[in-house]
Amino acid sequence: MARTTVVTGSASGIGRAIADLLRERGERVIGVDLKGAEVTADLSTAEGCAAMVEAVTMLAPDGVDAVIANAGVLQPDALCIAVNYHGAIRTLEGLRPLLARSPAPRAVVTASLAVAIGAPTGLAEAIDRGEDVEDRLDGTGYAVSKRAIGHWVRRVAPIWARAGILLNAVCPGLVETPMQAASMENPQVPAMIATIPMGRIARPRELAELFAFLASEANSYMSGQLVFADGGLEAATRPELC
Ligand SMILES: NC(=O)c1ccc[n+]([C@@H]2O[C@H](COP(=O)([O-])OP(=O)(O)OC[C@H]3O[C@@H](n4cnc5c(N)ncnc54)[C@H](O)[C@@H]3O)[C@@H](O)[C@H]2O)c1
């Protein structure tokens, strides 16, 4: 039977590519975004997330098979923490009862290469312990939010796996999406791209293939992993096993 997958941030970039790919494969997608999706919701607030859960429940009362918590922002600091960390967790925890009704439930979060590179030590860990660190972010909110959601995935995935729900994260490097459009104007970009072993940035569709696998029944034994899809940059930057 066709699977039903909830994709947040489905109106643009990576989320849109995931939704397109799953639909091409004949699956049902319930897209969530600020506009231009089946469910319109602002995932930066607890109320917005609760409204999203209610709307998805109305559309799929018998349950959903996968949730891809992908919506994200690049700035400012406080909004990064609100959407990329709290919004992703509220999405996954809020939809977990619907997921639990699937015979093969899967959950995927969009983290970032920033979990490994760019976040100052300690802040992400502090956020994931429930501490308020907003006055210490100083422009690092994006990297900290992504590292914090990476911590959450590592911490929570074993608990979810015991309940039969496989939870993983994808950590993209640079992907050609509207989020990156402004950064691409930066004159340092060619030098940055030269540090990527594959020598280029990713197309959203390349990422979508990986998300589709992690959200599928074919992913039958993978849980708690932060999968880097970054043209080899993470391995080149920190070759030690960690
Ligand atoms: N593009 C990259 O290079 C890159 C790299 C690493 C990680 N990521 C992550 O990938 C994910 C997708 O990013 P993208 O590059 O496709 O960007 P994008 O800007 O094209 O898409 C992000 C989507 O999230 C939605 N969104 C933002 N705030 C929201 C909110 N409060 N409520 C509901 N929806 C909201 C936006 O409306 C947009 O449709 C993000 O989590 C981003 O951090 C992107």
Characteristic terms for this protein:
single chain, 242 residues, alpha/beta, Rossmann fold, 9 helices, 7 strands, 43% helix, globular, binds nicotinamide-adenine-dinucleotide
Give the cofactors and ligands.
nicotinamide-adenine-dinucleotide
Question: Can you name the CATH architecture?
Answer: 3-Layer(aba) Sandwich
Low-pLDDT runs: none
CATH topology: Rossmann fold
Q: Which structural category do the helix and sheet elements fall into?
A: alpha/beta
Look at the structure and name the CATH superfamily.
NAD(P)-binding Rossmann-like Domain
Taken from the alpha-carbon principal axes, the silhouette is: globular
Main pleated-sheet profile:
7 strands, parallel
The number of helices is 9
If you compute it from the alpha carbons, what radius of gyration comes out, rounded to the nearest whole angstrom?
Answer: 17 Å
For the biggest β-sheet, the strand order reads: 3-2-1-4-5-6-7
In the CATH hierarchy, what is the class?
A: Alpha Beta
Which percent range describes the beta-strand content?
Answer: 5-15%
Per DSSP E runs of 2 or more residues, the count of β-strands stands at 7
Provide a short characterization of the protein structure.
The chain is of the alpha/beta class and 242 residues long.
